[in-house]
Specification:
Blueprint lengths: L7 E5 L2 E5 L5 H8 L25 E6 L12 E2 L9 E4 L4 H14 L17 H9 L16 E2 L4 E3 L9 H9 L5 E4 L6 E4 L12 H5 L5 E3 L12 E6 L8 E7 L2 E7 L9 E2 L2 E2 L4 H6 L7 E5 L23 H4 L11 H4 L26
Parallel strand pairs: 1-5
Antiparallel strand pairs: 1-2, 3-4, 3-5, 6-7, 7-10, 8-9, 11-12, 11-16, 12-13, 14-15
Helix pairs in contact: 2-3
Bound molecules: iron/sulfur cluster and FE2/S2 (inorganic) cluster.
The site of iron/sulfur cluster has 14 residues, from helix 4.
Length: 368
């Protein structure tokens, strides 16, 4: 009989769960879910080596393990700290963590512009959410934010380096998903920037996934830029037979137009997995299939109800049965009251589109 695996007990914000040895505190917290889970701007479970760059996932370890219950002296990054048996962790129950996280947000915003009103990532930007949830009203930084020229990195991707938070996710995508990486983080310290090696362009089958992993609006889809605000679009799950990728996507529609195609995201904002494999999508599905007829529609995407994108979209909505006609013995309900008989404002003799400026009571005086 196979030997039973010993699980580690870990308590996070007073909730105890059992996880396999080698699980990070962040992933243990994700198993619990909700507010107990620390935010993560650079860790991405589907990208090997990611994490440890942004410090947004800091937590307090109140007891290291059952064997050595001493607290850890400093806050630690939960994406890079593995659980120990009997570990006690504080996230939202720790004042120190809340204070440090507000500091990290302030730090991330030192150079990040507050251009959400014109940024394509607004509404699905992890930094925007983090700012609202953990940010402070002001900043103590007095110097100018660093700025960069917009850069085209390949036919489909626009780099807006000014917004980059140097999370490294896009470089991991290039390393792990594409044949050869032609971009990276150049220079050091305050001069660090994402760029391509001179005259190179990012152009290979899976490069579009860099757009999906970018937590801010630094890498955007050139075929979607400035076309719409994401909360006006309707996300719909769809699939097609694709020989290059899993073919499972989200279509972002306005009416019948497909404005954007992305991979499907899970509750942590990461690409969903199918059969334990991440559902990265190829550039053909992402950039070349922009007609609904290219896809088999699976239904409305499930969007977190707290997201601005979920507004006015109700998956599984069933309209109540219309009963007025039945009650009225088959009569059309509008026969109940013709608004034109009651209100002069709805005078069919007045064509409001021909009125110069706003309509006033004078506009309707010809009736009197
Ligand atoms: S461009 Fe985006 S994904 Fe790449 S390092 Fe900057 S913030 Fe991260
Ligand atoms: S998510 Fe842990 S350091 Fe960035």
């Amino acid at each position: 009989m196979a030997e039973e695996k010993k699980l580690f007990k870990v308590t996070i914000d007073n909730i105890t769960i059992e996880v396999e040895p080698g699980t990070s505190v962040l992933n243990a917290a994700r198993k619990i879910g909700g507010d107990v889970t620390p935010p993560a701007m650079c860790y991405y479970s589907k990208l090997k080596g990611s994490g440890g760059k942004c410090r947004t996932c800091l937590i307090e370890v109140a007891a290291g393990s059952a064997v050595d219950p001493r607290p850890m002296p400093k806050l630690v990054a939960s994406c890079r700290t593995n659980v120990m048996d009997g570990m006690v962790v504080k996230n939202i129950t720790s004042e120190k963590v809340m204070d440090a996280r507000a500091g990290v947000v302030e730090f991330l915003l030192i150079n990040h512009p507050l251009d959400c009103p014109i940024c394509d990532q607004a509404g699905e930007c992890h930094l925007q959410d983090l700012g609202y949830e953990h940010g402070k009203e002001g900043t103590r930084y007095e110097f100018k934010r660093r700025t960069f020229e917009l850069e085209d990195i390949g036919p489909y991707i626009q780099l807006h380096m000014t917004r980059c938070i140097l999370c490294y996710r896009c470089t991991y995508v290039a390393d792990q998903l594409t044949d050869h990486r032609v971009h990276g983080i150049l220079d050091r310290g305050d001069h660090s920037e994402i760029s391509t090696y001179i005259s190179k362009a990012i152009d290979n089958d899976f490069s579009g996934n860099m757009i999906d992993v970018c937590p801010v609006g630094a890498l955007t889809d050139k075929t979607f830029r400035f076309k719409n605000r994401v909360w006006f679009t309707k996300p719909v799950d769809a699939h097609r037979d694709c020989s290059t990728c899993c073919g499972k996507v989200t279509l972002w529609q306005r009416g019948d137009d497909v404005l954007r195609v992305t991979a499907r995201k899970d509750e942590w904002g990461e690409v969903q997995s199918y059969d334990n494999k991440p559902g990265w999508i190829c550039n053909t599905c992402r950039f070349d299939k922009k007609k609904t007829s290219d896809w088999v529609i699976d239904g409305l995407s499930n969007i977190n109800r707290h997201s601005v994108i979920a507004q006015n979209k109700y998956p599984g909505l069933e309209m109540p049965k219309e009963t007025i006609t039945e009650v009225m013995g088959g009569k059309n309900p509008k026969l109940l009251m013709d608004i034109h008989d009651i209100s002069g404002v709805n005078d069919p003799g007045v064509d409001l589109s021909l009125v110069n400026g706003a309509a006033t009571s004078k506009t309707f005086e010809h009736n009197k």
